Amino acid sequence: MASGSVTGEAAAGGRRVVTRFAPSPTGYLHIGGARTALFNWLFARHHGGTYLLRIEDTDRARSTEPAIAAIFDGLEWLGLAGDEPAVFQFARSDRHAQVAHALLEAGHAYRCYLTQEELAARRECAQAERKPFRIESEWRDAGPDRWPADQPYVVRIKAPREGETVIDDQVQGTVTVRNEEIDDFVILRSDGTPTYMLAVVVDDHDMGVTHVIRGDDHLNNAFRQLVIIRAMHAIEGGWPDPVYAHVPLIHGSDGAKLSKRHGALGVDSYRDEMGILPEALFNYLLRLGWGHGDDEIISREQAVAWFDIAHVGKSPSRFDLAKLQNLNGHYLREADDTALAGLVAARMAGPVDHGLLTRAMPVLKVRAKDLNELAAGAAFLFAQRPLAMDDKAAALLTDDARDLLARIAAILRPLSDWTAVELEASLKQAAADWGLGLGKLAQPLRAALTGQTTSPGIFDVLDLLGRDESLARISAQAVPAEHA
Q: Where in this protein would one find the motif 'KMSKS' region, according to its record (predicted)?
């Protein structure tokens, strides 16, 4: 257990801490969902508890197998896989219905025969009178003797009508709602299927969830869900209120709710398209709404040791792509070169010498911010002759520069020790002998060797390409075209 943490039982009032992440599989793993998963994972780890996954796939029309696979894949990549096999909500529909019938039989719920047309008319009337629409069903207290035969009905919970419900939210603080504002909401549809509100409560109970850590867009749901929880506790006991922590949503850099116009929303886009490392995204999401003093670089081990809900901010966090990329640059520089070369190789076209790529990583990753930049920076190592030139590099290869390349080739060809150190010494001496600054040699050399005007240090480039390839590339550009 992390130093300084309290036991899972103490954090959960005598129960072992159990958290859950419960995404709906209707698309990719959203960046906001990934942060919710991270906070649940960290809270459970910090308290020596259990972190569970639940796939809320009751929306059969929109839930897809590819989306489920994408969620698992993204969580695995971030190191946030569940401690136990995931629970699939749809498969538990019979259990949800069982609880609905228990509530019905105990008088905490009722059959409601109001039709959609009747509800629509009442809603329109409330709007016309500029009043909030509340379900006032005449079926709330109707007994079996009044139930119409062979007519469809829904099952509604009997929400309390007096007093208030108070939630001591671990992020939002004390939040109070008057019970008269809570509708008699539907828990079982007319076709016998459970609603989301019921399924969530039953699953959380059956999974032993002690702490519900989720987005603050669910805060209103908590008051409705407590109606079910407390009714079931009255029936059979053993249904304690969970500890709630409703985390503010993530906003874009402009302060608006995060959307596609702010850039990538799915974790897979940051990995596949943007070349972000999981360690960097983990660290960035951790600092997005939570902090530990002025610490910016926080390892997984430190995160587990330090994380608490008390330091989650109440205000929405702003997603800053530039900060993520800078953080990613740090993790690239810290990464193992062999592992990093493997990631970069997967982004490169054509055959790649993994040994050479690994050897090049220390000089390539110095300024790179993502795997794509690394792959682009490494491309010159495996380019085939004749070397393609970008416009800026081609502009450097004037007749004078080509003549200079011929003289450089003559200096380098006799070297017995082709190392960065020896190459630097020889070229510095040549520059001094010719009365030129070293940059005058490096610019045409870089163009001839890489086809670009930016690259790692020129001596590292020569060393990595090796004698034969370096001299071949220099020689290819050493004579003006009209003299070739």
A: 257-261
